[in-house]
Amino acid sequence: MAASCVALLALCLVLPLLLLGGWKRWRRGRAARHVVVVVLGDVGRSPRMQYHALSLAKRGFSVTFLGFCNSKPHDELLQSDRIQIVRLTELQSLAVGPRVLQYGVKVVFQAVHLLWKLMWTEPAAYIFLQNPPGLPSIAVCRLVGCLCGSKLVIDWHNYGYSIMGLVHSPSHPLVLLAKWYEKLFGRLSHLNLCVTNAMREDLAENWHIRAVTMYDKPASFFKETPLDLQHQLFMKLGRTLSPFRACSGPVDPAMERTAFTERDAQSGMVTRLHGRPALLVSSTSWTEDEDFSLLLAALEKFEQLTLDGDNLPSLVCVITGKGPLKEHYSRLLGHKHFQHIQVCTPWLEAEDYPLLLGSADLGVCLHKSSSGLDLPMKVVDMFGCCLPVCAVNFKCLHELVKHEENGLVFEDSEELAAQLQMLFSDFPDPAVKLNQLRKNLRESEQLRWDKSWEQTVLPFLMDM
Fold this sequence. Notes:
Its main location: endoplasmic reticulum. This is Chitobiosyldiphosphodolichol beta-mannosyltransferase isoform X1. By secondary structure, the chain is of the alpha/beta class. The chain has 17 helices and 16 strands. The protein has helices spanning 2-28, 47-58, 75-79, 99-119, 137-148, 160-167, 173-186, 197-207, 227-238, 293-307, 326-334, 352-357, 377-384, 413-424, 432-443, 449-456, 458-463, and strands spanning 34-42, 62-68, 83-87, 126-131, 151-156, 191-194, 212-213, 255-257, 261-264, 270-272, 278-283, 315-320, 341-344, 362-365, 389-392, 407-410. The longest helix has 27 residues, at 2-28. The chain is globular, with a radius of gyration of 25 Å. It starts with a helix and ends with a helix.
């Protein structure tokens, strides 16, 4: 009797899915070209998937973008009449019970919720999925693909199990389960994209997954910021962030001044201030794979060099992003008493972030891949803005940062401090090495995202 009840319950659950899937298969042949893009994370903090959606829309596909809506995506995405963003509900961690139980409840909720959203979405020819996180989204998207006739494209940014291994030990049951899951279900996709050749080789050798390398490329809106737009940005940021405000008001009331620029209200001409501070930018998701103690230690050394009489500028350090470790590092920053360095940690609007990168003097990247196989997209965006970068070294960084050609690579805080001293010596003039790196970036032929996507992804979609 119990077995019959279980079978009846299973039939009641599965039959509607089969009927709905059959109906969607019938409709898919009549529908316009449609793609679903899935991120089991914040849409606004998933730039690569936003670029996929924009590229698909520009080539005539209608796009449904499923993800959490915690921060604002780029305006170009919001303004496209071919892209619809569908909000996924994010279940916060339970406050009771063992951690394994909390995680299990969260995964089950996400699986059911994502399945429901996908089954009631317009029939799609393709499902583009970001991994990580892939648990439970890979299995759910593959199931929907089987039911509805959609082809699954997985974009491998990293491995979910390796990120979990930063919190738990590599031998933890959850980590081992996540690794088995990714390896099994990752093979069921129709097309796999990845971000480095090292990851492509690892997927082939250890996971038996064939992938196509598509390097991250900057979107067209990552470029050097004209001086007048820099001034507007500094004025805007100065309303809430004191490091961007002028130390003293202009003598001439017709002048409008920030910490870096001044504008003649009559002529509208913007000039850089003599003796302005250097502007250093680092963007982060405040996770375990970025050790900001390296930057803090380097800034302390830089401060000491300034106090000892080295000809170094004052420094404004902007660390932008959201994430779980932000409060921890904010507390550490609160205990520092710099005299020549100001640090702020804002979350910037999507439109302001490229403008800030295009206005800065130097970028710093502390991303150290959990797998050693992915590359920091933040550096790609900085290079698009012709912004020289100091980046902490790891296994495949050489695929992006060429030491002393388009940036500098460091191993520890002492080496980073030495690089800051060299680059900012006698700033802003001559700053020979800093200017040479920027010149190299300007002269290099930057392949932009649209062209790269057209060469890498589009041919596969046309053949699938």
